Amino acid sequence: MNAPDPRQLRRLLALGVVLASLALLWLLFGATRSALSLWHELDGLPDFLRYALLALVTVFAGASAWLAWRLLNPRPRKPRPSPPVDRASVEQRLERLQSRQAETAQFEAELQELDRRARSETAYVAVFGEISAGKSSLVRALAPQARDAIDVDVIGGTTRLVSHHEGRLGERALILADVPGTREVGAREREQLARDEALRAHAVIYVAGGDLTRAQDAELRWLRGYGKPLLLVLNKTDQFDTAQREELLAALRRRYADCADRVVAVRAGGSEQFLRILPDGRQEQVTRQAQPEIAPLQQALAGCLAADPAELEQARAAAVLGRLDERLGQAERNLRERESQAIVDRHTRRAIVGALAAVAPGTDLLIQGALATSLIRELAALHDIPLRQIDLDAFLRQAALTLRTTSSVILAIAGNALKAFPGLGTLGGGVLHAVAYGLIFDSLGRAVSQTLLEQHRFDQEQAQAGLQRLLSEQARSRIGYVAKLALQGLREEETGAERPR
């Protein structure tokens, strides 16, 4: 077949352009004629009717333009605030964890500490900030009569890390908490202790040695999110001259007007040097302790603590219960992960025992339907997720297809597992298929469990993707784990301790 002539193609393209231009011009003329005709008809109408029609057209055009703009620039949805956590729900979750033999001593101690502080008439103030910001010096300045830390913290044995000092602010008794500094290298646990203590306090003093970094900004806004009084304190003001200090204070007050109740500048103490002239005319450099300058902070703190004590206690309790809710959620997740793994291990061991008894070398690796169904149903029941039989059947059919296409890979991985355990590799093809079945059920259970944990529903696609990934994965620790289960299954097969159901 001859190729088309390029010149003929260009002529056809030019003709198409001309025809399209004429058609567009014709449409333009038609639109212009229609507009002129409409204008003449409007011009013949009474004034009130003409102006009403023009106003209607204007409103319609404006509404259309606004709608188009909104479609092109959608307004971001504001996240819905989560409802406050109540004490009863926290206690119910604790009871459920206790009924499942989970460790709850820390949570119970937190509630006891919450009640203990609520019964006292003392205001708790946490001094919070990064390391080297001068928190300890500020605590000593606010509570000069407290020589040593007092041991009042019973949460997890943290008295070495969170020290408390008694003080007074006018007629009000205070407990000042000197918490570990944040952003310390290798001290994430101590940083979490500092955050927890800040949530237990009635008010928080956030200490900074200069302008706030991005991390400090995030910490300050995180603290503000709990709705308790929050003071931003610029410490070490002797490092700035007057103009620099005022400029920095003004910038901080503008930036955190909606975040901190007050922004004040202090000098918590420290050392200072001056030149002393001796009687004989000689000069010497003298270092002495500087006097604290904390009057603005004392006034601001007194103003914060002058609020209704019931409101202060309510905000403090809400912060503690909110943090408890987060920790309980993590504890529940960890417990479900452990219980899920126990279910997977039990079914994996049964699959291995069944394969040792029934599978001959060369048999295709088809999934054991009844055992697989039991595995997935138990996992779904553990996570309180309803599971339809139609979804389960469809997933198992797809899983069976995956196993057929990856059977050689599974057998190869199982063979490597046998080589790693002397004694297993000499027992024949039945053991090889048993380890392969173990890998199948371990992968299946892990994939389904991970999907239920992350999605809070049975997502067939994610579970299938997880199954394929785990089947092709040759993680030494997991293969060794399954091989150990195979050894247990072999011993149980020999002794008759367990038979597949």
UniProtKB/TrEMBL annotation:
One Pfam family cited in the UniProt record for this chain: MMR_HSR1
* Record InterPro entries: GTP-bd, P-loop_NTPase
Alphabetical keyword list: Membrane, Transmembrane, Transmembrane helix
Q: Where is the G domain?
A: 125-236
Please state the span of the N-terminal signal peptide per the UniProt entry.
none
Origin organism is: Tahibacter harae
What's this protein's name?
A: 50S ribosome-binding GTPase
Q: Please list every transmembrane segment annotated in the UniProt record, as residue ranges.
A: 12-31, 51-72
